[in-house]
Every structure is written in structure tokens, then in C-alpha cells.
Amino acid sequence: MTRTTDIAAVVPPRSRRTIGNRNDTRRRTWNGVAVAAALLLVFPIYWMVNTALSENEELFSRTPRFFPFPLSFDSFGSILADGGFWSALGMSAGVTAIVVVVAVLFGFFAAIAVSRFRFKGGGLIILLVLIVQMIPTEALFISQFRMLDGWHLLNTVGGLSLLYIGTVVPFTVWLLRGFIHGIPAELEEAAMVDGCSRFGAFMRVTLPLLGPGIVTASVFAFLQAWNEYTLALVVMTKPGNATLPLWLQTFSSELSATDWAGIMAGATLISVPVVILFLFVQGRLGAGMMAGAVKG
Questions:
Q1: DSSP letter, residue 239
Q2: Cα–Cα distance between 35 and 192 in angstroms, integer?
Q3: Is the predicted pLDDT of residue 1 greater than 80, yes or no?
Q4: Predicted structure pTM score
């Protein structure tokens, strides 16, 4: 009778060190790439703040300063003293609030309809939603302008909000549909067995689980409405109706040359709400983007 003895392969110590060194080298390489990418992304923000806290004379000196000492807040003072800034801030805040509420609400109900109910043409609707997102916004400028002009909605908060809502809703439907697909309908059915109505089961079970998706859709709608420039340039033709990006383009001071420090100060102030928003929702935002994009 032959007895087979299994002999475990033993890796020599030198080979172990080689493998360990190779892994360390790979890890350091990827860490270096990540640091370089982070610096590349952070540098424009640093330069914006650095320029905003500097004097215009220092910006054109032969020896640029990488740290704005002593700090100068004169540019921020000139921005806050400009009445056009506050008018544009109110316009942007109003448009953004309308877009976030209406787009997320419409997208939410549409996503529920195409996810929870089976009807003829449901797949076609999702296909059309994706096709709409592929159309370049610039290709619709002329038709959108003529449409708002015919409805007497040029230079109005309602007209600009309507166009932004049409831009945001398709992505909102697609994102929330993926989220709803990831929530089993059996959870609602179990709650109904325990005595909840259909509406009560949805409010107590499904809606809390959709929180990250709703936050993600809201952030997307906020960024689209807050930062958008070209569409607002087409339909908001009167200076008094400018949003913040339009106001920043036309900002000027008493100086004969371009007030770069003032422009960067304005850009910094416009960016503050976005930074604050991301600080509050960054955890839910990451989970929402991953779940909404993968499921469904």
C-alpha cells in the first residue's frame, strides 16, 4: 500500500522579503499618486483663496507670494458692499430652493412609479430618461429661449427654475429608481401584515431607507442650480436679474484694471455654501451615489 505524504510548500525567507518589499513599493506608489491627485485638485482652491486675501498690486509683482501674509480682507469688503452681490444672492437662493424641492419631488414620485408598478412602456420611459441626459444643453438654447419668450417667462425666477428642473429631473429619476430597486417590496408587505396601511408602510419602512438617495439627488440639484452659468446667460438678459455666476462675470470695481482679488473673493463667497453643504452630507452622499448607480 502506497502512502502519499503531502508536503507543504515552504516559501524561503528571502522570497517573503521580496514579496513584502514589492507590496510596500506598490503601496507607496499608489499613495504617491493619490497625494499628487489630491494636490492637483486642491491647488485651484488654494490659489483662489490666496488671491482673494492678497492686494492687487502684490498679484502682479515679480515674486509671487504663496502665502498671503499679511492678510487683506479689502476685496471681501468691496464684494459685500456691492448691492449687485446681494441681489444675485437672493436670485440664486430662490432659484436653487425651487429647483431642489420641485425636481426631487417630481423625480421621487416618477422613480416610485417606474420601480414599484408594472405597466406597458415602463422600460421605454427609463430609456427616454437616459437619452434626454445625452442631449447637449447648448443644443436646446434657441428652442428654450423661444419657449420662455412665448410664455413671457424671460428674466423671471420661474422661467429659469423651469429650465433647471427639466435638466435635473431625468438624473433624479434614474438615481432614485436604482435606490428603490434595492429595497425589497417584501419589507412593505411585512409591515402591512403587521397592521400598517400601504401609505404607512411606505412612510415607516421605505422612505427612511431612501434617505441617502434623496440627499444625493438634492445635492445634485443644488449644484446644478447654484453653479450653472450658460443657461442663465441666455434667459436672464437684464442685469438686475443676474444669478451669482452671471454677477461674478460682470463684477467690476473702481480700478481701471481687472480686480482679480475681488473676483476671487466673490468666487470664494459663492463656494462657501457648497463647502458647507458637503461637510454636512458627505457621508450620505457617498453611500447614495454608490447604491443608486449600482442597484437596479
A1: G
A2: 51
A3: no
A4: 0.81
